[in-house]
């Protein structure tokens, strides 16, 4: 599995692209041309379409017109348009120039215009006239649309294909920076990229941004891919790659031509509103990004032909990527492969957030945690407020990830499903807290751990397990097995909202920095207890709620009302959330707080902890509650959540909760502590 | 809302009139739209007869299942309205892709307050790669929007097979919200 995942991240490098012989493309009709929009209308509307700044050739801010259906190669004005890509490619364009292709016309070969725009004056490639998008038919060139060491470009409203009788490394659109430095400002909007006869290597892509080279640190900045449709391409729908990829968390990669290139993450990269379908392999890959964003994309029927591991939409070696409001469905899991899921926090991906996504009917399941694959150190993923419906194989395929959180997701598995909730494997450790989720499992799938001990790496709190209950169903101090009373499970009006009498209402854990809204964009509480699952159905008023445990985040910097050992203090040296935590010095060191409780009542105490060394132990616990002292320890050197439940005695009105560094000479940390009533 | 072929001559007239009407064929382009109060869940959906921007007829006796999204995608809309329209259109297209074979019809209505440029809308239909989704407009006075009582966009209606409004979503349409509901509606 690890080997396969390493293969998954192979980088196939190419450098130059030459021109190829062109031949006339087949004149296939656009699939949706219909009605009475016809050539006459288009022709009539073409005349006055876009602003033509007819001026001297090669002057800036000039509009050049291209009509590949024109009989002669003109001067580039609207009245006398160019008619070949060769003419366009021979030109070096400047800031503010526009290259406008006539709608309804088809140009064959490679579009490779030269030059760069400038800040505020990009070079724009667009369409003019009315009707179907102008076609750029590569007819088997390496890249149908190509830019090399150029910046400040916009590519809009083109129909791009690149078919050939035999497969090879091919793309629809490729922009390359090679030892360039920072390439700034790219907009790729409303392209229809299809039928790219690529091979099944990862260098074959529908739309690809690539950085090569080893001498000048190079990256893309401010690139937005918006509203593109990519279909029937091999192998990948949309992706990026870089040789400047020596992520500190993945030192094994360093594939830059044998040189250990520095890590140069890209900035300002957005994938939005794209629809990707019928890909041979992956749908959308986000590589080496600094806070990349993928939102409102639709990916379906991915991984149709590649027999390697592929997923729908995933991030690798990035930091703080956000993947939200996407729909991914029908990703294929080919025989003998492990993946085929909707989403993936892959090798060395740190602090990725997957939220508000809709995953359904994916053969490989909903989510892959592979941050520590290939001996990397990725972790800290947050997976929240997603809906997984009818996904196959497993909900979470966990093959290495630290300090991650999976909370407030709704998972629906219909009768007949064999989908597992957890599949743990690959000899890697996954440490994840799963809180306030609803697993509505009408099938027979359960929990699969590589060995029994690894089950302890999964901390469960306040989840609802409805339906199937295998013998190894997790212990969970806030477990509910009651019907969550969805409004209409399996879909329908209200779908997975909670009925008024649902026990899942108001029984979740309060999560620090929870994003503030649920799956439907409705507010979720920050103080009051939220509902379980992805939908906040109950109303709340945070100002009227008081946490049972005060100052559980330490984020104000104050320690009160905690009572601390002399060698314990609030610190900024480590934090699970919010910038501060409680630092406990060499054992013994503790922080305690006495809270008001009700008699004969069960409470849940949870928190995040880590130690400075694996030989140290830190634990959270409760005492003086009318029963025996209870503790939940860990030796983890990365943040893990632990929890316990306690029931107060018949006359108990207070209890003392604590975080205690009881073994070891280093330091230990506690953060995001809370007590809730069960 | 059933796509239907009209006699060619009538269809051409409709194109020239560039309007959509409710219960009055395509002869009333000069009529002032009657603005209803906002159509609520449980209400009877209005009848629609119109041509989409590519000339295909859209006729409806109000029965679905049909997803009707009112958007502001064209020049004159704010950038926020245009962004919301683009994201919503992706979702509308996704619903058509998944559920058209099971009877769902998907219509996007340009809900501009003023009559939009037809060429712009025609190009939009191509540039957004709408396939199996019908784009209505331009409309003098926004008649379809008026009949649904639409005053702000985006807003999307899911009309059930009985012609009753099954769901209404205000704001950018999201697959996670609409997907399960549509799936249920086409069962």
In the CATH scheme, the class of chain B would be Alpha Beta
Q: Helical stretch count of chain B?
A: 5
| CATH fold-level label of chain B | Glutaredoxin
Radius of gyration of chain B: 15 Å
Helix content of chain A: under 10%
Largest interface: A-B, 54 and 43 residues
Number of strands of chain B: 8
Task: Give the number of domains of chain B.
Answer: 1
Q: Low-confidence stretches of chain A at least 5 residues in length (pLDDT < 50)?
A: 1-57
Structural class of chain A: mainly beta
Weakly predicted, low-confidence segments of chain B: 1-31
Strand order of the largest sheet of chain B: 6-5-4-7-8
Largest sheet of chain B: 5 strands, mixed
Please describe what this structure looks like.
The complex is a heterodimer of chains A (678) and B (187). Chain A has 678 residues and is an all-beta fold. Chain A has a domain at 563-677: Jelly Rolls, CATH 2.60.120.260. The longest helix of chain A has 8 residues, at 39-46. Chain A has a 15-stranded parallel sheet that branches. Chain A is 3% helix and 37% strand. Chain B is 31% helix and 20% strand. In chain B, the strands form two sheets. Chain B has a five-stranded mixed sheet with strand order 6-5-4-7-8, covered by helices on one side. In chain B, strands 1-3-2 form a three-stranded antiparallel sheet, covered by helices on one side. In chain B, strand 2 (48-51) and strand 3 form a beta hairpin. The longest helix of chain B has 21 residues, at 79-99. At the A-B interface, loops of A face helix 1, helix 2, helix 3 and helix 5 of B.
